[in-house]
Amino acid sequence: MREGLKCFGVRIKKSATVDETYRGLRERAVNITPSDINISLNDEHKNQVYAAIVDMPIGEKIVTLVCFFDGTTSLYFSNGGGILGGGRKHEIIQKAAGDFLFSSGQAIPFMQKASDYPLPTSKNSMVYLKCGEGTYTTQFNMAESQNEKYKAFLNFLIQRVINAFRESHEL
Questions:
Q1: What is the pTM of this model?
Q2: Phi, psi angles (nearest 5°) of residue 149
Q3: How many CB atoms lie within 10 A of CB 91?
Q4: Mean pLDDT across the stretch 125-151?
Q5: Residues 153, 105 contacting (CB under 8 angstroms)
Q6: What pairs with residue 11 in β-bridges?
Q7: Are the C-beta atoms of 51 and 110 separated by less than 8 Å?
């Protein structure tokens, strides 16, 4: 008998809790700095997004998409495991993640400055964009149509990265 629900083609067990490895990977992602990934942002590029963290609730579990400017793109699963380094292995993932990072800065003027990084507590996904000016956040339900254009735009970019994982057969 199959237990749990399917997330991006991966079965997640109902009994799983937030895994310590997941917490560690996510903690590293939300605290990453430009120097950690060997980039430097000058004043001209202060709104360039160098890291994006997207926490997506799937039932009682969370899947976190992480994209870094150095090409690292991964999915972490809150019950353990994940797909690490997809952007380094597959050009299609690297391109979608790069487009996400290059384009998502357009949404920053509509987002709130983040001081902490809570996990989702509802059906809303949490989006964190890190740039030279700081970290910005918004939340929305990815399954519903978005009334605010910037949320629809972010959702489109996020879905392109997830679809790239599918097309690369990583999911």
A1: 0.86
A2: -60, -40
A3: 11
A4: 91
A5: no
A6: 6
A7: no
Return the CA Rg of the chain: 15
Q: What letter represents residue 98's amino acid?
A: G
Taking the CB of residue 156, how many other CB atoms lie within 10 A of it?
12
Contacts of 151 (CB under 8 A, 6+ apart): 107, 138, 140
Q: Is 167 helix (H, G, I), strand (E, B) or coil?
A: helix
Contact 17, 71 (CB under 8 A): no
CA nearest to 52, candidates 10, 145, 124, 114: 114
Residue 61 identity (one-letter amino acid): K
Q: Tell me: the pLDDT tens digits for 64-83?
A: 999 999 999 999 999 888 89
Distance CA 114, CA 129 (A): 9
- Angle CA(124)–CA(128)–CA(131) in degrees, nearest 5? 160
CA angle 64, 27, 83 (to 5 degrees): 40
CA 164, CA 171: separation in Å to the nearest integer? 9
